[in-house]
Write a structure and sequence with these properties.
Length: 315
């Protein structure tokens, strides 16, 4: 069996030897935050945004986390990501960085956390994510609602039971089909996918749920909103109904690993409610010049290629 390596506070260690204390509040109470990202030939796209979001969460919980507080420490963590991928023989990888609060006395701690643990795990990027345009997915409305966020904004924390239960519901409904589950919030508005943010276009306007629904303000979501608005395209953040999705002209879901994924159909417990013609997301732009899903995906890919690798090289 091939030995796997992980990063543990800057060191490279066999995964079987990596551990956290039983008194770590990340283990005891879920006081831990994480980021998932693509590592591609020495590059991690939007690295500073990932660091910024983890640091915001750490600040909220009084966790003193050096990589989020200085560029030098951030660069050292990025180098550790590179070393972990290299140790595992990976040029393209799914990377997860987890920051746990560290040890503290048993109970609900109100003080500072001075010794957090930073863990880097890498695994091979699936073949379907190493290819070009992503295959369109079915988006299935879950009966389980998204839980109310513990903080505003929602952080990517180890409180993940809601997502686990949603994934089990999706599997019970559709088996191993290539589908994404869709959470509605407690008021019945569209929130987010199991592991993604949601966008839909109606006419010349792109729409995405706002943070009041409890959705995670994803890194790729942030890039899409910024890029569309730079072009002068209207992006509306708000509360939207299931019926509005059904009447959308096109849709996609997005995250840092899968990037931009077209939605080919909507379904709920009664079956398929809506399908879209492939032309809607493969055209370069609509007749009114509103960017299509394909155009957004291509722009995302081109922007990534302009980013230098660890040695300063650009594709």
């Amino acid at each position: 069996m091939t030995k796997e390596f992980v990063g543990m506070n800057g060191r490279i260690v066999p995964s079987a030897q990596a551990n956290v204390s039983v008194m770590d509040h990340g283990l005891l109470y879920g006081v831990a935050f994480f980021a998932t990202m693509r590592y591609e030939h020495g590059r991690v796209f939007l690295w500073s945004w990932h660091m910024e979001r983890i640091q915001l969460a750490c600040t909220k919980l009084s966790i003193h986390w050096e990589p989020g507080e200085s560029d030098e420490a951030s660069d050292m963590l990025l180098r550790n990501v590179h070393e972990v991928c290299k140790a595992n023989g990976l040029n393209e990888a799914y990377v997860r960085i987890t920051v746990t609060a560290g040890d503290a006395p048993l109970g609900l701690h109100i003080g500072n956390y001075s010794e957090p643990q930073t863990i880097v795990i890498a695994k091979p990027l699936p073949l379907n994510l190493r290819m070009g345009a992503r295959a369109p997915k079915r988006l299935h409305k879950l009966e389980l609602h998204r839980t109310t966020a513990e903080t505003s904004p929602r952080f990517k924390s180890s409180h993940y039971l809601n997502n686990f239960m949603g994934r089990r519901e999706l599997f019970a409904a559709l088996g191993n089909q290539d589908a994404e589950g869709l959470f509605m919030d407690s008021h019945g508005y569209v929130c987010e996918g199991l592991v993604s943010n949601v966008f839909y276009r109606k006419g010349t306007v792109w729409h995405t749920p706002d943070e009041s629904t409890g959705c995670l303000p994803g890194i790729t979501r942030r890039w899409v909103i910024q890029w569309l608005r730079t072009l002068g395209t209207t992006v509306k953040e708000g509360r939207f109904s299931w019926d509005q999705l059904i009447h959308a002209d096109e849709m996609f879901v997005c995250n840092a690993l899968q990037e931009i994924v077209p939605v080919r159909a909507l379904s709920d417990s009664h079956g398929v409610c809506k399908t879209w013609d492939e032309f809607m997301w493969t055209s370069a732009a609509q007749k009114d010049h509103t960017p299509s899903t394909m155009m957004i995906s291509q722009a995302y890919g081109m922007t990534k290629k302009q980013m230098p690798d660890m040695d300063g090289n650009v594709e």
